Amino acid sequence: MSKRLVAALLLAAPLMGGCGPRVKVSAWVVRDAILTPQAVAQVCEQAESADLDSLLVQVRGRGDAYYATKLAPRAAELNNSPTAFDPLREVLDKCGKRTVTAWINAFYLWGSDKPPQAADHVVNAHPDWLLKDADGRAVETYTQEEKARGWIEGSYADPASEGYRAHLAAVAAELVRNYGIEGIHLDFIRYPGPDYGRGGALAKKFEGRFGFDPRWLPTGFGSLNPEELFSDEVDPGRRVLQTGLLYWDAMRAGEVEKTVAAVRDAIRAQRATARLSAAVFPDASPAYLEKGQDWRSWAREGLVDELYPMSYFGGAERVGAQLSAIASEPYPQGAGTRFWAGLGAYLKEPAEIGAEAATARAEGFYGICLFDLGSMKKKAGLKAYVQKVRGYSSSLPGRHELGTNLPTEGLARDYARAGEQVQAPGPGELEKLASREREFGEAASKTIPALLARYAREGVKTPPWREARGIFRFIHEKDGLKRKESQLDLCRQARDRIIAGEEFGKVAAQLSQDGTKNYGGRQGVIYIGRGGPSDLALGATGVGGVTEVVAERNGCWVYRVDRAGEGGTKPLEEVEWAARRVALLTDLSAGPAKTGAGAVK
C-alpha cells in the first residue's frame, strides 16, 4: 500500500499492541428519530448497546428547529408533542455518556411545493436570502417536475447572501451557548449544483469584476472541461468561456467558505473548545466545481475540525477508491482536521459496510460514521453494523506537506483547486494559464461586450432545438468495470424497449435514475450547439427518433425526440437564457470574421 497522509495527524488514542488508535464509530441521527421522549430513549439505548462513541443529531432540517430557540420556527413534525418537549435537551439528558454534536442543514431550507406555515420561516420572512438558478429565477417557484429536471431538492438559501450567513452563524452560536454539545455539524453546506447562484448578489460581483453577466456562461454537468484550457485544438471561444467558468466556480466556493468561517468564528466566540465539522461530497474536484464545496481548502486552512466525506454509493471499488483518494490528498502538517469515513449503512448490509470500513481503517481515517441510526435499526440493527466496523487504524507515516508553491491568486490558483488532486501547476502550465488569462481579459473587455451590443441591436440568432425525453444511468469514474457495464446494459435495454414501442414513461420509471425517472422522462427544450456527445446525438436525431446510447462523463443517456425546430433571429429580450448561452458560445467560436466583434487572441 502506498504511503497515506491521514494517520499520524489524526492520532487521538494510545497505541494498543503495536496497532494504531482504536477507530471511533459514530452515527447520524435523522430528526424523525427524535420526535418523542420515547423515541429519544430508544436512540440512546441503541447507542449504549452498540457502544457508539458519538452521535450527530439533526436539529435543523428545513430551516426549522428541534430545540428551543427564537431564531427559527419549531418543526411542524413536533406539533403533536408537548410544547415543553425539547428533543435536543432530551438527547443530552438520556445519551449523556455519548458525545453529541448538533447537526444542522445549512443552505437547504424547504422541499415541499407548499410554503412553510410559519411566518418567521426564512422562506417566508426573507425571500431576498433565497437562491436563484442560472437564469435568475427563484428556486422556490419551481414545480416538482422542475426540481427533478434541475437535480435540486427544494428551496435553498443563497450562499452569497450576507444576511443569511449572519443568521446561520447566530443559529450555531445559540446552540453552542445554550446546550452542552460537542459542537456543530454542517450538512448541505454547498450549492445544489453547477447551475445555481447566477441571479443573486454574487452575479453582480462577477459582472462588476469581468464586465458581463455570468448567466451568459455555459451550464450543466461537465459542459466544459478545465483541461481544455491547455489544448490549442479547442477553439478560443470555448476556452474563453471555460476560463470564465473557473473564475465563477472559484467565486461560488469562496462564498461557501465564508459561511463556514462565519459559523466557526461564531461558535468559538461562545466556547473556545467548540468543534466544527461538515459532511462533504467525497470526490473533491466535482465537489468544488459543481457544489462550490472546497473542503480541501477548509482542511488546509484549519477552518473545520472534522470532515465527513459521504462515500455512501456504489460498490466496494468506488468507495475504496474514494477513500484512498481522500487519504492521498496533501495537507500541511498541523492543520489538525480529522477525517471520518461516512458510509451508507442505510443502503447496504453489515458485511458490505464492514468491508468498506476496513479500507477506511487501512487508510488511517480517524473514525467511521454510519448513515443512519434509524435505517440500521430497521435493517440488521445498529449493533450488527458497529460490530463490523470496529477496529484499529493502521500506523502510517504522517502526511506530506503540500508545499509553499501553490498559487495564491489568479487563474493558476483556481485551476489548481479544481483538479482531481491539488497540486501546483508546472512552469509550462503556468505559462499557458497566463496566456489564457490574457485571452479571457481581451474577450471580456472587447469581444463579448461587442457581441452583446450587437444582440441588443440586431437580435439573437437562436440555435436549433430538440424537445426530448431522456433516460439516464449514473456511472462514476471510480466504479468497477462490472458496475459500469451493468449501467450501460440498462441504458441499452431501455433503448431497445423504447424502439419496440413501449411507453417512454413506463420505461423511465423502471430503468432511469433521479431527475429522469419520473414525469415521463421529460427533459424540456434542449438547444443544439453546446458541444459534447449528447449534443451531437440529439442534433443528428429527428422527431420521433431515438438516439444511440450516449456516453457522457457522468453516465449514459438515451433520448427520444418529441419535437424539433431550427431556430431563427429574435429580439434579445424574447430569447430565453439557455438559447442565449448557446448563441454566445457559437459566435465566440466562429471567430472575428463572423462575429464582427474583434479577434479573441
What would the keywords be for this entry?
single chain, 601 residues, alpha/beta, Chitinase A, domain 3, eight-stranded parallel beta barrel, 21 helices, disordered N terminus
Protein model, in words:
- The chain has 601 residues and is α/β, with parallel strands linked by helices.
- Among the domains are: 425-461 and 570-595, no CATH class; 465-566, Chitinase A, domain 3 (Roll), CATH 3.10.50.40.
- Helix content is 41%, strand content 14%.
- The strands form four sheets. An eight-stranded parallel barrel has the order 1-2-3-6-7-8-9-10, surrounded by six helices. Strands 13-12-15-14 form a four-stranded antiparallel sheet, sandwiched between helices. It has a two-stranded antiparallel ribbon with strand order 4-5.
- Helix 2 (37-50) links the parallel strand 1 and strand 2.
- Helix 6 (162-178) packs parallel to helix 8 and helix 11 runs parallel beside helix 12.
- The model is unreliable at 1-18 and 593-601 (pLDDT under 50).
Task: Describe the protein's topology.
Elements (H helix, E strand, L loop, with lengths): L6 H4 L13 E6 L7 H14 L3 E7 L26 H8 L4 E7 L2 E3 L11 H4 L18 H6 L5 E2 L5 H17 L4 E5 L13 H10 L25 H35 L4 E6 L3 H8 L3 H6 L5 E6 L4 H12 L10 E6 L6 H13 L4 E4 L2 H6 L3 H8 L20 H9 L8 H32 L1 E2 L3 E10 L6 H19 L4 H8 L10 E6 L5 H7 L10 E3 L2 E11 L3 E2 L6 H14 L1 H4 L6
Parallel strand pairs: 1-2, 1-10, 2-3, 3-6, 6-7, 7-8, 8-9, 9-10
Antiparallel strand pairs: 4-5, 11-16, 12-13, 12-15, 14-15
